[in-house]
Amino acid sequence: MEIWKAIILGIVQGLTEFLPVSSSGHLIFFQKILDVNLEAGAMFLGIMLHIGTLISLMIVFFKDILGLFKNLKMLGFILIASIPAALIGVIFGDDIDRIFYSGDFLCYGFLITAVLLYITEIYSKKYIGNKNVGLKSSVITGLCQAVAVIPGISRSGSTIAGGTFMRVNRNENANFAFLMSIPVIAGAALIEIFKQFISGEGIPSNDILAILIGMLFAAISGYIAIKFMLKIIKKANYKWFSLYLLLLAIFTFINNFINII
């Protein structure tokens, strides 16, 4: 693994994990461009990049995370919202990897997210959310997060959309969407690390430096993306992300037929 490739993938992971454009979809897209096989020797890099974004989450929401131990009701809602994605990942994770990580279906995931974001912006401008997170909204956003295990469908975009349609106020919707991703990201990383050692591959020692550097850039870019996204959610301005994903969907669809990358 060349260091410059690890840096690019780290930046891509950090930005797209929290912007509503699908980190898994973009990693697959860039792995083709950079000729990096994340399903084989570089899988551990993908795991560590997710841990890098988890670190950025912990930094930005450090006070909120500590506050959860005093607000057990909110902690319960976060755990409830994490259950659907956890179940899907454990039960169907390998099948999802096998079917979707070829990249052949990315165009459809990107298109779904583009349409969802456009509808979310229209809805949020028409119906201003004024509710707090509750049991019903946490279940709905949890189901939205579960759907986003499919590459191309954005986790942050889906959960924010779920909260918006449940008319949760924008600030609380933003915080909840990011906080509920912590158990899922952490759990997914632990599962992949376990699989890595069970398979006998262990840590690729020759790539440790590249992995650490990629992880650092994922954390830095993730921090920037979270701060930026918190402002975007307050304004409910998603149309440019929608347009970007529409163009990306068209490109990846065409690429399926003529193999541009």
Largest sheet: none
Globular, elongated, flat, extended or rod-shaped: what is the shape?
globular
What is the number of E strands? 0
Strand content: under 5%
Radius of gyration: 18 Å
Spans where pLDDT lies below 50 across 5 or more residues: none
- The structure class reads mainly alpha
Order of helices and strands: HHHHHHHHHHHH
In terms of quaternary structure, the protein is single chain
How many domains? The number is 1
Helix content: over 70%
Write structural notes for this entry.
This protein is mainly α. It has one domain (3-258). 78% of the residues lie in helices and 0% in strands. Helix 1 runs parallel beside helix 11 (208-235). It is globular and about 50 Å long. The chain starts with a helix and ends with a helix. The model has no long low-confidence stretch (mean pLDDT 87).
Please describe the structure with a list of short key phrases separated by commas or semicolons.
261 residues, mainly alpha, 12 helices, 78% helix
Element layout with pairings:
Layout: H1 3-18, H2 23-34, H3 43-60, H4 62-68, H5 72-100, H6 106-126, H7 135-147, H8 155-165, H9 170-179, H10 181-198, H11 208-235, H12 239-258
Helix pairs in contact: 1-2, 1-3, 1-11, 3-10, 3-11, 5-7, 5-10, 6-8, 6-12, 7-8, 8-9, 9-11
Give a short synopsis of this structure:
This protein is an all-alpha fold and 261 residues long. Helix content is 78%, strand content 0%. It has one domain.
